[in-house]
Amino acid sequence: MSPAPSLPLAELPGRPCPIAAALELVGERWALLVVREIALGATHFTDIVRGTGAPRDRIAARLKVLEHAGVVARSQYQSGPPRYEYRLTPSGEALIPVLDALLEWGKVHAVALDDPDRERHYPSMTTLKDKR
């Protein structure tokens, strides 16, 4: 596996910093939802699309970007027609605590108190990863 691409900070707009560089790679909404789905065990394209609710073309584009960034790896599991499965690389697995932080923040700050699904159990991504 080749190393993940790095972004020269000087080429980023505004106040360049590692946060800005990270957002260039994984800051688009569907990117982190793709990582979430793979972390939850969805390794096939159709399952990732279903779990994110995004259009197929968006997920296809996002998977290419994430693969190029070294966040996910793709391997063929069927040749006719060619089909691929996706897994998180060590770089992708390093995003799991970020997803956990967003989960906790979202429960407190992004979900209305009267939302009927608010009390639903949302497992920690770290816990799920440890079970695999």
Automatic annotation (TrEMBL):
Highest taxon in the source lineage: Bacteria
HTH hxlR-type domain ranges (all copies): 17-114
Keywords, in A-Z order: DNA-binding, Transcription, Transcription regulation
Pfam families listed in its UniProt record: HxlR
GO molecular function: DNA binding
Protein name per the record: Putative transcriptional regulator
Organism: Mycolicibacterium rhodesiae (strain NBB3)
